[in-house]
Amino acid sequence: MVRVDRVLSSGCMLGEGPVWDERRACLWFVDIKLQHVHRFDPASARHTILPAPDQVGWVLPAADGRLLAGLKTGLHVVDPDADQASWHHLGPIADERPGNRLNDACIGPDGTVCFGSMDDDEAAPTGRFYRFSRGRIEAAGPADICITNGPAIAPDGTAIYYTDTLGKRILKAPLDADGRPGPARLWVDTARDFPDAWPDGPVCDAQGGIWTGLWNGWGVARYAPDGTLLDKVDLPVANVTKVAFGGADLRRVYITTARKGLDPRDLATQPMAGDVFAFDSAVPGIGQTWVELG
Question: How far apart are CA 122 and CA 120, in angstroms?
Answer without folding.
Answer: 5
